[in-house]
From TrEMBL:
GO molecular function: RNA binding
Keywords recorded for this protein, A-Z: Repeat
Protein name: Pentatricopeptide repeat-containing protein
PPR repeat residues: 79-113, 180-210, 283-317, 385-419
InterPro entries linked: PPR_At4g14850-like_plant, PPR_rpt, TPR-like_helical_dom_sf
Amino acid sequence: MPQRRIQDFKNGKGDEIFELVNMVKEKPDILTASQVHGLVLKVGMLAHLPTVTTFLIIYSRSKNLSSSLTLFAEIINKDIVTWNAIMTACIENNFFGFAVNIFAEMVNEGKQFDSATLVIVISALSNMRELRKGLVVHCLSMKMGMLLDSILGNALIDFYAKCSHLSSSECVFLETECKDVVSWNSVISGCLYNGHPEKSLLYFKQMATLEKGADSVGLSCAIAASACLDEFGCGQAIHGWGIKLGYEERRHLSVANSLISLYSQSGDADAAEYIFNKMEYKDIITWNSMINGFALNGKISDAFDALHEMQFIRTTEPDAVTLISIIPLVAEFMLLRDGKAMHAFTMRRDMGAELSMMNALMDMYFNCGRVKDAEQLFLNMPKKDKVSWNTIISGYSQNGWCREAQSLLKKFHSGNSECSLSTLLGILPACDSPT
């Protein structure tokens, strides 16, 4: 906000100052916020609760949570809106524990709260995956006689799903009065998140039957569920319905990303690429979906071209998912130089803790005959899972390092209660070799 605009309000009345504060809230920045805060102090409006509460929001949106907390501590007569505002500020700045602690303080002081307060707290607990505390809040809402309206119900549906308590999520969904699209989306996405795509699709079909409509969230989840179940015809039907509802893939990112994965998995890479090329905006998920789609359908050159365009033309940096799609291709075609470049990239980006990627790189080195490089990678891995052990044992065996394979199998077996089938299959060539 220009300096002269603030000057215009220096001799303003209370309602004019409050108007200025609300203007700052729409486009907050720390410098302007400090200037207006000084003006509010000068005219003695810090006792005006709506003004102070708005400042909590302004500082929060300016990523200055400490100022919000300091200001909150100075307020003597806080109301529900003020408490809700500071808890929301904490959540917006990813300080979920702070929000929960403030709610506990509010309850201990005997302050009144409403369903909006509980929605805020449940949101914080969802992000923390704090099932036990969430159960307490849910019980508290019932004790206070708060009905499961759509907003509180939706928050609880999402909370239980994120805490991997799907049965409770579904129970809350059934008990929620006046279900809206968000209610349906919450249970549809919750089922998908918890590995039940068949339930996700069933709820979506129920929603469609009841003519509740759908938005991009529900459509993208249903398409993803169809892909998980190999129900490609169903996914195509949902695609057509989405277009009728006005959700064209070129403008709706989540829908388009799900469609790229659907068509790629169905073997129709051309349809996936057609959607990809139509999109007005692409995020990292879009690029990963398309690169993986090319890889799944054997379009190796297209996968590498997409990776190059992503990095050097669109300036989107690859992540672990991108590399996990590409590294198996590098291994299959023994492209050692590309593989080493990707390994170096992971080191520069501190991705060494990504187990699946490290396992893929180890497999790549073995395929390229670089046993020592694979061995060094294995030894340097901070964590190892069964896939790591399977990969190195199989890699040793396939490269003729029979004694090393047998020795490592003994070490693996001594520290693990059971060997997987793939581990045993990996060692068979070594067991058959003369030692």
